[in-house]
Design brief:
The protein is of the alpha+beta class. The protein has a single domain, classed as Alpha-Beta Plaits (2-Layer Sandwich). The protein is built from three helices and four strands. Strands 2-3-1-4 form a four-stranded antiparallel β-sheet. Strand 2 and strand 3 form a beta hairpin. Helix 1 packs antiparallel against helix 2. It is elongated and about 45 Å long. It starts with 7 loop residues before the first strand and ends with a helix. This is Divalent-cation tolerance protein CutA. InterPro entries: Ion_tolerance_CutA, N-reg_PII-like_a/b, N-reg_PII/ATP_PRibTrfase_C. Belongs to the CutA family. GO terms for molecular function: copper ion binding. It comes from Aphanothece hegewaldii CCALA 016.
Length: 108
């Protein structure tokens, strides 16, 4: 039997540097807005102010309880250097119950 776990999700954020990504991640974890944040370097190609940019960025994959999304997004915007940071939430539609319980226990 399939179950929907839309309470939990992944929030994607890109940061301009490893240091900025780690600062955002640490703040989200210490504020109990995220259970875990994974970071890795990515190459982004995007349009900003009518120009195409090719940039090295850091991708944050934030595991969280989406009922706290507004507070999480506000915290990210306070800490982020970008005028328009990427903050995209994706619901977890299936997952191991023990992992989802762990997310729930670590986000408040």
């Amino acid at each position: 039997m399939e179950q929907q776990f839309t309470r939990y999700g992944i929030v994607l954020v890109t940061a301009s540097s490893e240091a900025e990504g780690k600062a955002i991640a640490s703040s989200l974890i210490s504020s109990k807005l995220a259970a875990c944040v994974s970071l890795f370097p990515v190459q982004s190609i995007y349009t900003w102010q009518e120009e195409i940019h090719h940039e090295q960025e850091w991708q944050l994959i934030i595991k969280t309880d989406l009922t706290h999304f507004n507070t999480l997004a506000k915290k990210i915007q306070e800490l982020h250097s970008y005028e328009v940071p990427e903050i995209i939430a994706l619901p977890i539609i299936e997952g191991s119950q023990s992992y989802l319980n762990w997310i729930g226990a670590n986000v408040s």
